[in-house]
Every structure is written in structure tokens, then in C-alpha cells.
Amino acid sequence: MNKQEKEEYQKFSREKLGFEFHDIDLLITALTHRSYVNEHKDKQVEHNERLEFLGDAVLELVSSDFLFRNYNQPEGIMTAWRSALVRTESIGAAGEELGYEPLVRLSHGEKMDTARAHAVILADCFEAVIGAIYLDQGYDEAKKIIQKHILVKIDQILADESWRDPKSYFQELAQRYDGVTPVYKVMKEEGPDHDKMFTVGVYVGKNLRGVGVGHSKQEAQGAAATEGIKRYRKEHPKKD
After folding, report:
1. Is position 127 annotated as part of the catalytic site?
2. Which element (helix H / strand E) includes 208?
3. Annotated catalytic residue within 52, 110, 124, 127
4. Which of 31, 100, 132, 164 is the most buried if burial means most Cβ atoms within 10 Å?
5. Is 56 among the catalytic positions?
6. pLDDT tens track for 113-144
7. Residue 108 pLDDT class (50, 70, 90 cuts)
């Protein structure tokens, strides 16, 4: 990578992270996917998985420390809150906010993959970037980025109760208000095997209470349960 290309990464760091990397190669590595390395075996290029491992640990520590200091709840509840904060969707969205996607190095084949696959890559890169910041700038700088892009989401997570497992919570509501255990049924299945889409409906008795779409039956069931939860909240605003 030439000097001009490296400057693009340093520019991103200055404008989006608020500092310049001492070792810009750490940031470049953080944004290098394994597929790129496999496609450029003739070059000495490292992928981001080791930094991702480190960043994941820093992210978990900062999130755990934040919840411990600000909330007095049982371990199980705070674990669920932390999981909601650092799940793939949340950190992938943080990656979109930072805007490093154009700098992510992928193979030509990976660039053509599904939007869902790219979302996972963006999330993995966020963890790797946190690992790179931790190594280059220290814990406090990594913490600032996590606070700005991850921890600020806690109020919304608590407000809409997205930290709860949707299927378990929906079953609890269905049994509480209707005395019935919900049943999930596949309504539609389409697309090629490598990118299949499922549409699932959740029924309480004979009533369709929610419809969800996902790349797996489990994902679609969770989406259907989430829709069902919204309906119960509308019907029982004061009780729930």
C-alpha cells in the first residue's frame, strides 16, 4: 500500500475517530477481511481476526463496566442488556455510522455477496477497529468510541425492551392474556439455497398475531414474535 492510500485511512481516523494513528497499519489491518488476504497470497497482508478477538474483549469490558456502574440489576438481566448492546446488528450499525465501509478490503467475490453478509463484516470490522484503537491509543480512547456509538443506545433498548428474547417474551404475553401457547408456521419459502428467505406467521389459537421474514426459520420466528409483542403492547398499554 502506497503513501497516498495510507493517507486515506489516516484521514478517516482524523475525521471520524478524532485522532491520528501512531501505527496506521493497525487500522488498515482492522479493515482487512480474510477473503482479501486469501486473494492476495503473494503479498504480506494480515487479516483482522486477531484484532477482532481483542476488540470484542474490550467492547465487552467497557459495556460491562458501564452497566455495573449505572444500574443495580441482577446478573441475568444485565447480561441480556449487554448482549443487546453488542449484538451484530448494533455494532454493524455503529460501523455504518463511522462510515468505514469504503475502506474495508475484501476479495472481488466477497464484494458481490449479500447485504446480510456485508452487515456481518461491518460488525466484525467494528470490533477489530476497537482492538486497533486499544493497541494504538489505549483503553480510554477505545472507551470513548464505544460510548459514542454503542452505549448511547441503552435508553432505546430499555424503552422498547429489545433486550428480551422475543419468542420467550411473546409466549409469556400470549399465555398471560390469552392462556394459549403460540404456534409458528412457515407461510412462504423462496430464494436460492445460499440466500433463502422464510416468511413465518405466529398464531395464538386461530389468530395470526405476527408475520416475520428472515434468512432462517429461527430469524423469521423472532421477527414474527417481535410483531406480536407490538400488538399486545397496543392492546394492553397500561398493563405491559
Report:
1. yes
2. strand 207-214
3. 127
4. 132
5. yes
6. 656 667 889 999 999 999 999 999 999 999 99
7. confident
> What separation in angstroms does the CA of 14 have from each of 17, 64, 98, 106, 216?
6, 28, 12, 23, 40
Side-chain-side CA neighbours of 57 within 13 Å: the count stands at 10
What cell numbers appear for 51 in the block? 484484532
* Cα separation, 133 vs 196, whole angstroms: 37
Distance CA 105, CA 122 (A): 11
Residue among 56, 110, 124, 136 flagged as catalytic: 56
Angstrom distances, CA of residue 112 to CA of 23, 46, 108 = 31, 22, 7
pTM across the whole model: 0.79
pLDDT tens per residue across span 164-203: 888 988 999 999 999 999 999 999 999 888 778 999 999 9
Nearest partner of 126 among 58, 37, 44, judged by Cα: 58
